[in-house]
Amino acid sequence: MKRTDDASPTAILKLADYLCFTVYSTNLAFGKAYKPILDELGLTYTQYITIIALWEEDNVTVGRLGEKLFLESNTLTPILKKLEAMGYLHRQRDPADERQVRVGLTKSGRRLREKGLDMDLIEACGLMPEEFPKVQKAIATLRDNLIKSVQDRE
């Protein structure tokens, strides 16, 4: 990590000085904040965002869903199997292309939306309403830049 402030280039950085650690620890804090709510639904955070993605775009291929969630197939498949066992979604081969598996919500999966809409961590975040889109956009830009950087090296 390179510093852009006036600190000496030979200074030893503290863990709190690393942007990557700040993002990582913020993610952990979000997980802890969501946990009581998700426990009520019987879902993990990753299962919950998978359901949200399917609320937005139902009956998608596993590949498309993985792209949307930034998850590899080997990570996503166990999540989908668990959600299917819970009765929230179904998986089936695409009749037009047997190589593709499509994922869609069941009635139970769609009904989770009503319960999930109660999730509101606005107060816990301590941000003003106008700050939310700015913070979200800055983090998304950071993510996209990192992805592009990795792709450029490949």
Explain the overall architecture:
It is found in: Cytoplasm. InterPro entries: HTH_MarR-typ, MarR/SlyA-like, Transc_reg_Sar_Rot_HTH, WH-like_DNA-bd_sf, WH_DNA-bd_sf. Residues 16-144 form the HTH marR-type domain. The protein is built from seven helices and three strands, in the order ααβααββααα. It is mostly helical and 154 residues long. The chain has two domains: 35-112, Arc Repressor Mutant, subunit A (Orthogonal Bundle); 120-154. A three-stranded antiparallel beta sheet has the order 1-3-2. The two termini are 20 Å apart.
Which labels suit this protein?
single chain; mainly alpha; 7 helices; 2 domains; about 150 residues
Overall structural class, as computed from helix and strand content, comes to mainly alpha
Distance between the termini: 20 Å
Low-confidence stretches: none
Strand order of the largest sheet: 1-3-2
Series of secondary-structure elements, N-terminal to C-terminal = HHEHHEEHHH
Keywords: Cytoplasm, DNA-binding, Transcription, Transcription regulation
Domain HTH marR-type: 16-144
Organism: Paraburkholderia acidicola
Protein name: MarR family transcriptional regulator
Draw up the topology in text:
Blueprint lengths: L18 H23 L3 H12 L3 E2 H8 L3 H13 L3 E6 L2 E9 L1 H10 L5 H4 L5 H23 L1
Antiparallel strand pairs: 1-3, 2-3
